[in-house]
Amino acid sequence: MYQPPQFRSTDRAVAARLMRDHPFASLISNDDSGVPFVTHLPLHLEERQGAFVLLGHCARPNPHWRFLRERPTALVTFLGPHAFQSPRIYPDLARVPSWNYLAVHCTVTATLVDEPAAKDGLLKKLIADHEPPYAAQWRSLGEDFAHKMLAGIVAFELRLDAWECKLKLNQHRPESHAALREIYAQGNEQERELAQWMDRLGLGARPDAQGQGGT
Question: Is the pTM of the predicted complex or chain greater than 0.90?
Answer without folding.
Answer: yes
